[in-house]
Structures
1.
Amino acid sequence: MKPEEKKEFKLIDSTFTPNEANNLLSDLIKSKISYHKLDDFSQHIRFERDSQHSKNRIEQLQATQEELKEFINIAKAKGVNLVIKSNVFIEYTE
């Protein structure tokens, strides 16, 4: 694969208060859950079948959301901020 067929993007690289981190990460997860709910609905309407992949991802994302809440609540109780870093790797595929 040629180097120009892959790319990395830095999306998040900063320090956040627990409330800011909660808002940022909750919005991200809610957006991903909404995407998968819409995909599942679309598959159901267009092809009369459910998207098992989307159903699985929704469950995984909901579990991640709960873990993040616990982690952020601990940070809040300790009175500390959180460093969040997130990169996205994209490449072409067939």
2.
Amino acid sequence: MITQEQIAAMEGCTAFTDQGQRLGLVEYILVDDTTGRPEWVRIIDRASGLGGVFVPLRRADLENGRLVVPYPVTMIEHAPCAALDCASVLSVAEEAQLYRHYGVRDARDEVNAEGRAGWAVMDRAQTIREGTTGQEQAVSRLQQVQPGR
């Protein structure tokens, strides 16, 4: 899991799968605007044609200056927003699609998450759902962070 303290170390970082396949460079990170927890990374690699994909950071690690994600290249290439021109933020609906694609639970659905992940009881889950109903295409709970800044 990537921590807030590791965000700065991700500047210029290259991303790899846990099988050692190179994915590309970390372009930016999306952080939960309430908890500050790094949620998504945007990876680009124009040389290979991988032009901006979002990958979840919950199961990722930073090892020897490399970002390592536990997802195969084919899953990442077929992720929602991989071929779309998603803006620098994700709408609630786009984020939900990505969570489903990667098989990761949405933080808004987690009430009692494991302590090692830095989450406490999340009583804000219902409030977030209520606050975005009908606005899923326009609302985001994420904030863009440039590594090293």
